Structures are given as C-alpha cells and as structure tokens.
UniProtKB/TrEMBL annotation:
Sequence segments annotated as region (Disordered): 1-21, 219-239
InterPro entries the UniProt entry points to: R3H_dom, R3H_dom_sf, SPAG7
Transmembrane segments: none
SUPFAM superfamilies associated with the record: R3H domain (SSF82708)
Domain of life of the organism encoding this protein: Eukaryota
Protein name: R3H domain-containing protein
Length: 239
C-alpha cells in the first residue's frame, strides 16, 4: 500500500479544466499574433510594390495611366492613398467582390468619357477600343448632321410654299380680265410711306409766350363761365 501510494504520488496530476482553457487561449493568441504579423508584412510588401509601380509611372512621360489587377477593398485603399500622395488620381471599376480593380491616372491625362463608359460597362480599354468608340462617335455626328440638314430643307420648303403660292393667278384669271389687267393686278403692292405725313413746320407753335398765356387765361375764363351757366340752369330747374 505504501509502495502504491508513493507511485501515485510521484505521477503528475492531470491538468484541470481552467488550465486547459488557459493553454488553448495562449496557443490561439500566438496564432493570431503570427497571422496578424504575416498580414502586416504582406501589406507592407504590397505598399512597397505599389510605390515602385507608381514611381515608374510618374517618371514615364509616354505613359498616362497604370492599371492594377482586381483587388479587395483594403489593397485598393492602399493604392488610392499612395496615388494621392504622388499627385495622381485613382478610379475603381468593376463589381465589388468579383473583379473590381483600380486604374491610376496622371491628372493631366484623366480618362475620356468614352473610356469611362467602356470600363464602367465591364469592357477593356486600349487603342483598338478607342478607335471603335471614335468611329462610333463620328458616325453619330454625321447622322445628326444629316437629320439637321433634312429638317432645315423641309422647313425651307414649307416657308417657300407659304410665301410663293404654287398657282399662277395671272394665268388663272387672264381669260376673265385680260392680260394687261392681270399683269397690273399682279404687281407687288408697295407701301405709301407719305400717307399721313405732316410737315415739321406745321407742328411748331409759332405763338409768343405772352400770346400763349393769354390764350390759356381765355380758355380758363370760358370754362368758368360755362360752368357758372350750368349751375344757374340747375338751380332754376330745382325751383
């Protein structure tokens, strides 16, 4: 019995539940720290990679933009941050979580409306696509010019039909009123600009100031007398 007790006493006791949980927590913590450091190192390497690419873009006078592969939101934010620091402009295209990517442009060579349309529609952009959009735009311009020309032609035709009747009234009524009368009636009517004309000499008041004042006083006196007569007639009728 003493030997058995001594053997059991020398053996390590099994860990308690709290100790197991503590060990597991420490292991998970180490794994998390290791993963976190690995992600941090990866982002630092990616930042260095982006800085190198955008640095070459800035130095290359023949290149106007640089396109990156599809990236998640974290990596795109790094590209945006570095581009802004370098004085560049970054624009994202594509569907989030699927194929969203970023293109960094030099600010003096921002994308055209055609390029934005192509990329937003999920297409690519290169010299061939640019030529296709240019041809399409030229065709639309020619089509618009043709429509405008046809509309103007139609409007001129309608205006001519309004100002120049299609029927010839001289020939239509020549058998009724004769050729000379028809020609005379068909002459263009001209405006008599002297109608109602009054010479400027007749518009001037040639009276002197004294005569003008006397005429005014005479008119006032005549008006007063006329008013007085009307009042007397009214009083007589009232009686």
């Amino acid at each position: 019995m003493d030997i058995l007790e001594s053997i059991l006493g020398s053996m390590e006791k099994p860990p308690t539940k709290d100790k197991k949980e503590k060990v597991l927590y420490e292991e998970q913590k180490k794994e998390y720290e290791k993963l976190k450091n690995r992600e941090k190192d990866e982002l630092n390497r990616f930042r260095t990679y982006v800085e190198g690419r955008l640095g070459r873009l800035v130095k290359d006078d023949k290149r106007h933009y640089m396109e990156f592969q599809p990236l998640d939101q974290v990596h795109r934010s790094i590209v945006h941050d570095i581009a802004e620091t370098a004085g560049l402009s970054g624009i994202s295209f594509g569907i989030e979580g699927a194929d969203r990517y970023i293109v960094v442009y030099k600010k003096e060579h921002l994308p055209s409306e055609d390029e934005l349309t192509a990329r937003r529609n999920g297409g690519i952009w290169n010299k061939e696509v640019e030529q296709q959009y240019s041809e399409q735009r030229r065709f639309q311009h020619l089509e618009l010019q043709q429509l405008l020309a046809e509309r103007n032609k139609r409007q001129r035709k309608e205006a001519d039909a309004t100002t120049h009747p299609t029927s010839d009234y001289k020939q239509k009524y020549i058998h009724l009123i004769g050729k000379d009368a028809a020609m005379e009636g068909a002459k263009k009517t001209e405006v008599n600009r002297t109608y109602g004309y009054v010479p400027s000499e007749n518009k001037k008041d040639v009276r002197s100031i004294e005569q003008t004042m006397a005429d005014i006083q005479a008119k006032k006196k005549l008006k007063t007398e006329h008013t007085s007569e009307e009042n007397n007639d009214y009083k007589t009728c009232s009686k």
